[in-house]
Amino acid sequence: MYPDVLLFIDGKWRPSLSGRTLPVINPATEDVIGSVAHANTDDLDLALEAARKGFAVWRKVPAYERAKILRKAGELMRQRAPEIGRFLTLEQGKPLAEATAEAMGAGDNLDWFAGEASRAYGRVIPARGEGIYQLVIKEPVGPVAAFTPWNFPVAQVNKKVAAALAAGCSVIVKAPEETPASPAELIRAYDDAGLPPGVLNLVYGVPAEISEYLIPHPIIRKMSFTGSTAVGKHLAAMAGAHMKRCTMELGGHSPAIVFDDCDFDATMKLLSGAKYRNAGQVCVSPTRLLVQEKVYENFVEKFVAAAKQVKVGDGMEQGTQMGPMANGRRITAMEAFIGDAVKHGATLRTGGKRIGNKGFYFEPTVLTDVPMDARIMHEEPFGPVALIAPFRDLDEVVTEANRLPYGLAAYAYTRSVKTATALADRVETGQITINHHGFALPEVPFGGVKDSGYGSEGGAEGIEPYFVTKFVTQASA
Q1: Helix, strand, or coil here: 414?
Q2: Is the pTM of this model over 0.85?
Q3: Per-residue pLDDT tens for 364-395?
Q4: Alpha-carbon span 328 to 322, nearest angstrom
Q5: What topology does CATH give the domain 7-250+452-473?
Q6: What φ, ψ does residue 391 adopt, rounded to 5°?
């Protein structure tokens, strides 16, 4: 059973004041499986007032007590992960094992930020005079507006909420309307763990309407957004106009650099698995596969064979490796990208078409010989398509890796310590993983550079954007 999802405001689950709802569609069948409450400005006013009152209470709760609530929420997420995973697969499409793992991972993230709540140290600065104390104190920034996407609807909400609550902030989450039940269950875990009313609020609705109302509002002191670069730039400009702090995790077009001295079989296994994970709807998905000339033809042959072996189907069915795309818009986008690339001279090695006419299924796709004037070489495809191209040497591949304005993630595979060190130094990216895949763990930073955003949502850095620094100096009377 899939639930009809309500708003969560001031500690209560409730419909919108207007009674309006939006349908929720299963991407595997295109059937309407439920509904989600649609917030209007009256609902947002209630959420804002709740967040204001909640912040006044929560900021005074000792970090040790905040941490206990976060850990309890993490325990509940682990216990409820199988049910939450089913909701997530029904509304988003990813295979059930991946969906359940996403819900389980929320527990690890909550454990990490529970610890960070108690490790948010200030410092004492030696004074220039006798009897003077100089203290640096970290204080919560205030109520936060968080905007999250549909590709990882549990993980993305939790990254923002756990860090904000650990710091002592209250939060209004605008979660994705297309995948509402799984983030709602995350919020339920926080509530059941003992969070005071008003500290955490959940709304759904038209994204532009909600962001344009919340971000300028004087109660909101910080904004955090995960989504496309175009929307992120618009929201960042809005936040800047009102002097609001913001964390931006935006798009990517990640290079995966394969040198001829790599462990070939291990590299093939890693890349073919990562490329089609969540149907390529991953901000750090390896997209431009750059392969050194000596192993290029062999790599293409093996990668195409691996793509053809991917089992595409309903995420609820056992053995499914890639589910449908999340919505019909992604099918249209894939067809446009691939059609444009082929028109400009790209070679379609496999895939390139929608599967059937029921459900948003798309073939795992490989393109080679893609010219630089094709759209897909400049815009994030966000789908199950790999672009494979050869390169000669380090200088050439670094130039290509850095060509685009994106800088979210990069991958590399080589047995040479010298090459690996050079790549770590020269590739313009917020994160690079070499000879294994190690992004998005709770204890490590996650964020981009250039048009891929700024700020971090993991590691010790993840809590910092939710603090303001206060300097206190005092002389003895």
Answers
A1: coil
A2: yes
A3: 999 999 999 999 999 999 999 999 999 999 99
A4: 16
A5: Aldehyde Dehydrogenase; Chain A, domain 1 (3.40.605)
A6: -145, 160
